[in-house]
Design goal:
The complex is a heterodimer of chains A (about 800) and B (about 180).
Chain A: H1 24-28, E1 44-50, E2 56-62, H2 64-68, E3 72-77, E4 101-102, E5 108-114, H3 117-124, E6 128-133, H4 140-145, E7 160-168, H5 171-176, E8 180-188, E9 200-205, E10 211-215, H6 220-231, E11 238-242, H7 257-269, E12 273-276, H8 279-285, E13 292-300, E14 306-316, H9 324-330, E15 344-351, H10 367-384, H11 388-394, H12 414-425, H13 427-430, E16 438-448, E17 463-469, E18 475-479, H14 488-500, E19 507-511, H15 528-555, E20 562-565, E21 568-571, E22 574-580, H16 581-592, E23 595-601, E24 621-632, E25 639-649, H17 656-675, E26 681-682, E27 688-689, E28 707-713, H18 735-747, E29 750-751, E30 753-754, H19 758-769, E31 775-776, E32 790-792, H20 808-812
Parallel strand pairs in A: 1-12, 7-32, 8-30, 10-11, 14-15, 18-19, 25-28, 29-31
Antiparallel strand pairs in A: 1-5, 2-4, 2-6, 3-5, 7-15, 8-13, 9-10, 9-12, 13-14, 16-24, 17-18, 17-23, 20-21, 21-22, 24-25, 26-27
Chain B: E1 15-21, E2 24-30, H1 36-43, E3 62-65, E4 68-71, E5 84-86, H2 99-107, H3 116-129, H4 135-141, H5 153-166, H6 175-179
Parallel strand pairs in B: 1-5
Antiparallel strand pairs in B: 1-2, 3-4, 3-5
Helix pairs in contact in B: 2-5
Classes of the chains: A alpha/beta (about 800), B alpha+beta (about 180).
């Protein structure tokens, strides 16, 4: 990739320019087809019968009346799909339809394929299910106190799914060196993605034995593997086409039961079968933000530098594993990526409860601990009498650091980000100076640009791109990436156009089809721009080299002197001398035969060598700083946020207007989580969701959304395509803590629980008025027996990245 | 022996109505309990109209009936007999995009594009009523349209920009909207 990376802004023809997205117009005219817009002749419709009880054994299911109902073509039960599956290989604990046991309200127990949705819905009522209730596990304390009945037979013990303890360095030593130590217990409630498009899938099984599934999935490749396994078909006989997602945010990453069910029903009926979940069903499909209870104990010196951190988390995982094991790691492993933490201990527990399963939502597991850390830093600054912006700036980790937990950070312009928001917001004139009820708060964060490790172990590329050029001058780029609204299709066009010197709209982009496009792992972990971008650069540079050779011969100009720009190939020293891009392709096809190139990308290996060290490392880290301004009404407790200033280091904007759009979207989602969004259940009413609807699950509308001042900070990253890093997730992280800190500046109370609904704010204000602690939040952090720490010496201690070997005699005790 | 049951709802005689859709007189027959949303999508193939809840809560399915925004998931198909319905498919004039569609493309105001049809039509109805709406008026008009991608900002900017252009002003997007602030 020589010559393409980190080249800086100058000379780019496409990169850094605000081109339209390649699909912008079809999205504005209704032409773009989402999964539920697809219709095939003879298509059947599927409805799922879902459990009405949270935890029970299935004693009996009688489907005879449903089967006999006119218009019903097939009825499917759990026994028809006995193979389990799940997003991660370590927790394949789901079945397409429940077998013997339901674990949450909404678990599917039977499926009906019928001639239309009405018939399918009517037939659901004819299925008789007899349940034998089991004790319901409702919460983290409930799961700790009740090891029986176990929701799953696997996992650590009782209803504890995962336990892990890591100690990097020696926290006790770090605490001993501190001037002060404080511990804060905080809680971040779960929330859901609420993508506008309800999950939908359409399956077709031909008599040639080939299955095609069109579905709104973010992770087509992983789904492909699960379908093969559960359906017992060779993967080569399955074609998955990921339709453009009407919003994802992590909610369409897991392989879903309904995707498997329609595939199986298509195999049985030999007719196309479609399903579209209702909004209520989407709430139960969930996989959103884990509720996380946290205890963060931090030692610090008078200058605000951190000497050690002991961070403990408990995740309420819901009924299934999903991505939860990864989420568990993410509630701690990025705490070291903004400010120097020389000694770090991280303990995490994930429990099973009889609720909708949690998983990856924008920021996957990191917004909760980042919020906890940033609101604690604000308390530390207050305790020390320091300006929290200045204090943060003093202790930012330098670029190219390796953290205590062996995460290598590349470029990181956090200081510049802090400067931008401090200056832009007028911080120095506002902090602790605004009238009662008004306040400002600041927070920072860092986030990864893709993970180093794929979800299942392999040494293959993470992303592949193929390029086809033909004598018409047409360029077609093929990639398995999935467009979820972030602009991934457009990024491919911009990058290939930049390398080949053509217009991005000359390029045809074909993505998200397992038959046609090379594997890309999917739209998750902010990996797409970096990984598909690097693969696209490689494929395009290989194509350019062929054109260069062919054009060089024809023009009798050394290849090294040829430039590619403005749809021409020309002599850099004599730009008049050249040919059109189309002619160059023609000549290359004459010289080499049919033209096609490939590119692939695999991330660099991290320096950590201990068990679990593969989660967290990334080819590149972004960082963000945000200042929020709030108005708090002390009479009602209502918080309004008029404005947020946010600066994000994204390496290099491939397209600035799309990057700004991603950051504004992050501010929006952070605002929603901070103030109102919560995924909560009625414990006394069968653990049904409290408000599984758009109306009652509160999310910000135009009326609640704040103004946003966005700064794009560019520190080109050698590992990124043209220096680019992510922009779609990281910028959400500092928003909730900046708002929480601003609330303290406004009314002098600490809200240690997200969302900061008016009742919580009022309780804290009233407590303060009574002379009590002006705080709302949890006070107890339950404990359970934990395994021994995996101890790893830090890079600062001269460690080698491996865990410290224990004496065999000790570990046997 | 299995008893074959009578089906009730779907046996009803189809409703048959005429109306104008995107400027064309059309006739359509459908099960009478169907919503306008279902009639448009399933019986007329106009899948540009989206749905996010089918309960009138998200705004995705907004279409214009006689120029006014209506949530098509809450209106019965039979209720639009003789009326004039505009869907997203009717917003561009041939190859000519509506100025709103143009500014939405320019500003990246359609990220995933799923809420976009409902928002474009609602915004169009606003501009036809209030040619140069203020930011607050736009916010209020679009308060019933949920968007989870954009944070609404690019949408609000795109509506303002289109309104200015429709009023004959040679408006361009603010530099900060495109490149961020210095």
């Amino acid at each position: 990739m020589a010559g393409s990376n980190g080249a800086g802004k100058n000379g780019f023809k496409v990169i850094g320019k605000p081109f339209h997205k390649v699909d912008a117009k079809v999205k504005c005219t209704g032409e773009l087809k989402f999964a539920d817009d697809l219709v095939l002749p003879r298509m059947l419709h599927t409805k799922l019968l879902r459990s009405s009880v949270p935890h029970a054994r299935i004693v009996k299911i009688d489907v005879s009346k449903a089967e006999a109902y006119p218009g019903v073509k097939a009825v499917l039960l759990g026994k028809d799909l006995p193979t389990s599956f799940g997003a991660l290989p370590v927790s394949e604990d789901e079945h397409a339809l429940a077998i013997d046991r339901v674990r949450m309200v909404g678990d599917p127990v039977a499926a009906i394929a019928a001639v239309d949705e009405d018939v399918a819905t009517e037939a659901l009522d004819l299925i008789e299910v007899e349940y034998e209730a089991l004790r319901t596990i409702t919460s983290i304390p409930d799961a700790y106190e009740n090891p029986e009945p176990r929701i799953h037979e696997y996992g650590e013990v009782g209803n504890i799914h995962r336990r892990q303890v890591y100690e990097f360095g020696n926290v006790e030593k770090g605490f001993a060196e501190a001037d002060f130590v404080r511990e804060d217990i905080t809680f971040y409630e779960g929330s859901t993605h609420l993508a506008l498009e309800q999950h939908a899938s359409l399956a077709q099984f031909s008599h040639d034995g080939k299955l095609t599934l069109w579905t709104s999935t973010q992770d087509m490749h992983y789904l492909h593997r699960h379908l093969a396994k559960v359906l017992g078909l060779p993967a080569s006989h399955i074609r998955v086409i990921a339709t453009p997602n009407g919003g994802g945010f992590g909610g369409k990453c897991d392989p879903f039961n309904h995707e498997i069910v329609v595939s199986k029903l298509a195999m049985i009926t030999r007719r196309p079968v479609k399903i579209c979940l209702t909004r209520e069903e989407v709430f139960y499909a969930h996989r959103g933000r884990h509720p996380v209870l946290m205890s963060t104990k931090t030692g610090f010196k008078k200058d605000g530098s951190i000497t050690a951190m002991h961070h403990r988390t408990i995740l309420d995982g819901g009924a299934y594993g999903g991505h939860g094991v990864a989420s568990t790691f993410y509630t701690g492993i990025l705490q070291t990526t903004t400010h120097n933490v020389p000694h770090y201990k991280f303990e995490a527990v994930r429990v099973f409860t009889n609720k909708a399963p949690c998983g990856p939502k924008r920021g996957h597991g990191t917004p909760q601990p980042r919020w906890a850390q940033e609101i604690q830093l604000d308390k530390i600054a207050t305790q020390l009498g320091l300006d929290p912006a200045e204090m943060r700036k003093q202790h930012v980790i330098p670029p190219n650091s390796i953290t205590a937990n062996w995460i290598r950070i590349g470029t990181l312009a956090l200081t510049e980000c802090i400067d931008k928001v401090v200056k832009g917001s007028g911080w120095k004139d506002k902090f602790r100076k605004l009238p009662y009820g008004k306040g400002v708060g600041i927070a920072c964060s860092a986030y990864m640009t893709g993970t180093q490790t794929p979800i299942y172990f392999n040494k293959l590329p993470h992303s592949g791109v193929q390029l086809k050029l033909d004598r018409s001058g047409g360029v077609c780029v093929y990639c398995g990436s999935v467009e979820i609204g972030q602009g991934s299709d457009s990024i491919l066009a911009y990058i290939v156009a930049e390398v080949l010197g053509i217009d991005p709209f000359d390029i045809k982009v074909v993505t998200a089809d397992t038959d046609i496009t090379p594997v890309d792992l999917g739209s998750y972990s902010s990996r797409v721009t970096l990984m598909t971008g690097n693969a696209a650069i490689q494929a395009a540079e290989r194509a350019r080299e062929m054109l260069r050779q062919a054009a060089s011969e024809k023009l009798a100009v050394p290849g090294s002197r040829l430039s590619f720009a403005d749809r021409r190939v020309f002599d850099t020293e004599n730009p008049e001398k050249g040919m059109s891009f189309v002619d160059a392709v023609w000549l290359a096809e004459e010289k080499f035969g049919t033209l096609g190139t490939t590119g692939s990308y695999k991330p660099p290996v991290s320096p950590g060598k201990f068990k679990g060290s593969t989660i967290g490392p990334s080819p590149a880290f972004t960082c963000t700083a945000a200042v929020a301004e709030v108005d708090v009404n002390p009479e009602t407790g209502i918080i309004t946020v008029p404005k947020v200033w946010i600066a994000h280091d994204l390496g290099q904007a491939i397209n600035p207007v799309l990057a700004v759009g991603q950051i504004e979207g992050c501010v929006y989602m952070g605002l929603g989580e901070a103030l109102m969004e919560e995924m909560v259940y009625r414990g006394n009413r069968n653990m049904v969701h409290k408000f599984p609807s758009f109306l009652e699950y509160k999310s910000p509308t135009t009326m609640e959304m704040c103004d946003v001042v966005t700064y794009l900070v560019e520190s080109p990253e050698p590992n990124g395509p043209f220096g680019a890093k992510e922009a779609g997730q990281g910028p959400q992280l500092p928003v909730p803590p900046a708002i929480t800190n601003a609330v303290y500046d406004a009314v002098g109370v600490r809200i240690d629980e997200i969302p900061m609904t008016p009742d919580k704010v009022l309780k804290a204000i009233r407590a303060k008025a009574k002379g009590l602690e002006g705080r709302y939040g949890p006070t107890v952090f339950p404990t359970c027996a934990m395994p021994e720490s995996i101890v790893v010496r830090t890079p600062f201690e001269g460690g080698d990245g491996k865990a410290t070997e224990r004496e065999p005699a000790l570990s046997k005790k | 022996m299995k008893q074959v049951q009578k089906r009730s709802k779907t046996k009803l005689e189809k409703a048959h109505i005429s109306l104008r859709v995107n400027g064309e007189e059309v006739e359509v027959a459908f099960a009478p309990h169907k919503t306008l949303l279902e009639v448009l999508r399933e019986d007329m193939g106009l899948t540009g109209t989206k749905h996010g809840c089918e309960l009138g809560e998200c705004g995705c399915c907004a279409v214009l009936v006689d120029g006014r925004p209506v949530l098509s998931c809450l209106a019965l198909g039979v209720a639009v007999e003789g009326h004039d319905v505009t869907t997203i498919e009717g917003m561009a004039e041939g190859a000519e995009l509506h100025p709103l569609q143009q500014t939405f493309a320019e500003l990246g105001a359609a990220q995933c594009g799923y809420c976009t049809p409902g928002i474009l039509l609602t915004a169009r109805a606003l501009i036809e009523k209030v040619p140069r709406p203020s930011r607050d008026e736009i916010k209020e008009a679009l308060a019933g349209n949920i968007c989870r991608c954009t944070g609404y900002i690019k949408i609000l900017e795109a509506v303002e920009l289109a309104a200015a252009r429709m009023a004959g002003e040679p408006a361009e997007p603010a530099k900060e909207s495109i490149y961020g602030w210095e």
